[in-house]
Design brief:
With 175 residues, the chain is an alpha+beta fold. Helices cover 29% and strands 30% of the residues. The protein is globular, with a radius of gyration of 16 Å. It starts with 5 loop residues before the first strand and ends with a helix.
Length: 175
Amino acid sequence: MSDQWRALKNIDEHCFGCGQNNPNGLQMKFFTNEEKLRSEIVIPEHFRGWSNLAHGGVITTMLDEIMGWTGIYFLNRFLLTKDIKVRFKLPVFINEGVTIHGWVAEQKSDRQVTLAAELINSKGQVAAKAEGDFVLFRAEKFASMNLVPADHLQRMEGMFSSAQQDQQNCCREGA
């Protein structure tokens, strides 16, 4: 696995998971080494659950978000979460720095993929793991579902094109 991590571009500034202009969100940023995606975050106090623990729903959101980005980046497709299973292994605390990794576990068909993720605590321990089934969509089908405005859909397609170009440049440089 490459140790070179490169930042990915985000186009949705207001997404709860990755929107950099969402003051109530996680503001996750993503990096790739062309085998996995990674995000690092210090869990803010307003995401607390009981006492000084990070809320389990927020941990699940972080895992789902990185899996979604993993599918978008590596498969260059629109996707929706069909099913997600999270295993909480260790407590995760507010104000704790964590690292989240995502990867493609299995491409089951042209329409379905299993993605995986793990959250590593500040001590380097796996604190939570997730696996999810995601439904893949081509742009035309996603557009016909009217889930996002047309201009937003075009920006998302631009993000895919950028990702494909980045992957090609990376592979050429590494060859």
